[in-house]
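User: hey, got a sec? need Integral membrane protein folded
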Amino acid sequence: MTPQPPASTTRALRTACAVLCGLLTGLFFAAWLGLTWLQDHLLSPSGFQDTAHSVVTDTQFQTELVGTLLDRASFGLLDDYQTGLGPVDRTLENVRERAVGAAESFATAPEQREMWTQVLVQTHAANVPLSPEMGEAPENLIVNVHPVGATIDQRVRDAIGIDPALSTQELTVTVPGARTGPAIDVIVWIAQWRFVLPWLAGALGIATLLLAPRRWLAVAGLGLAGLVLTAALLIAALVAAQSLISASTIEPVANLVVLEIVGLLRESFVARCVTGMIWAAVLVLVGVTGAVVRRHAVAYH
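Assistant: Yep! Here you go:
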């Protein structure tokens, strides 16, 4: 007859399995929370536009970006050209100032909202493949402000009859050292499986409750695992966002766009994670309350 393992060994093994299942449940919960947010607000073109919609209405951001773009652009003969003849130089400078003023006022007008939307659309398209089959993302972040240049060209031509030719210049700005491509490729691939994660988390959560010697404490443990791992995900995302912002400081135009968009996405992601952490904390509270009530009930009887 095969000897049975001691009851204490069996209990310890079940407890270890319950702890492992509980940790995996928290991990899958945090992963599902993050991946669904990524799909809704970053991977989906429409979701990205909805999240970053305030970019197309923030006139302060628009003015700063247009001014920075014009500072780095070349205006041909109008660009720091000195003839040595006072009246001619003053005329050239006045023409340049009129060109810059016309460009800034036109590009930040409310009716140019479609232009700013195209900046978002083209920047998203340049960085995020909709599926792994569509190829890999570029290694470094690309910011495409070409629609702004094309619109400014048209306005300046209409206003003063001179073509600044901004749209012929390099208005697709790469952020060197950002290294966003590998991360985006991994996220796009993993996001395909986001629908499976809640089922896995649910199955492992049930297994945790069945294996754990104390069910209410297991409930609290599940909530604690979700709380801690979601907090870890949030911290990792904030660190990654700050690294991206730091990398973009090399290029002023890209830095303005990255600061604005990352700020909006960060705010949305923090809100999603905090909501998940609140529900996890509620589960911890329910589990602890249930364990305390049960203990008092057993002691009473």
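Quick note: The longest strand covers residues 142-144. Let me know if you need anything else on Integral membrane protein.
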